[in-house]
Structures are given as C-alpha cells and as structure tokens.
Design a protein that fits this description.
mainly alpha, c-terminal domain of poly(a) binding protein
C-alpha cells in the first residue's frame, strides 16, 4: 500500500511562508529551505527589536530632557531627582515632548523644582 501524504496541507504551509518572504533578495524569496530559514530568523529579529525599540526611545527621551535641562543650568539627573523630591510624577516621554515642542511649559516645570 502506498504511503499517504497530505500534499494539500504541506503545499499550503509552504505557500504561506513563501508569501511572507515576498520582496526578499535572490533565493530568499522563492527557494523553500532558504526562504524558511530567512523567515524564521526574521521572527527572532522582530522579537529582539521590539525590546530594543523601547530601550532606544527611552535613551532618546533622556538625551532630549538632558539637553533642555542644561539650558536652565541643571543636569538630567539633578532635574529628575528634583522632580521625584517634589513629587511631580511626569514620565520621560511627556517630559521630552514638552522639552521639544513646548519649551515654555518645560521651563515652568524647571522653575517649579528649582
């Protein structure tokens, strides 16, 4: 008796991965084994970089707050320490946005903690 193989399911599984690798260079888009390896590695990069994105944005916010704080004679660490001591709970994302787009509001916060 011949071996029963579900070609429909395996072909659909391969087509799904090959559809996800459209736009890749060379054999990475149309050779099954190469495309599968590329796609799997891409998933690991995506997982890693979702974490790195948060890290990078936090670093950017800190740089912006530090640059704006130094205009008013404070360092980043002294500003954040003063904010915590005065119990002003404002996160770095909002503080960086104020420093970039609303300098008068940022100055008011700095004046309040000085």
């Amino acid at each position: 008796m011949p071996r029963s193989v579900n070609h429909v399911a395996s072909r659909n599984r391969r087509k799904k991965v090959l559809k996800l690798t459209r736009g890749y260079y060379g054999a990475r888009k149309n050779v099954w084994t190469v495309a599968k390896n590329t796609w799997e590695k891409g998933l690991t990069y995506a997982y890693r970089d979702r974490k790195n994105k948060k890290r990078n944005f936090r670093a950017l916010w800190i740089q912006r707050i530090n640059a704006a704080a130094r205009i008013y004679g404070l360092s980043y660490s002294r500003l954040m320490g003063a904010l915590h001591k005065n119990e002003i709970e404002i996160n770095r994302k909002v503080l960086a946005d104020l420093a970039m787009n609303h300098p008068e509001a940022f100055k008011a916060i700095v004046d309040k903690v000085k």
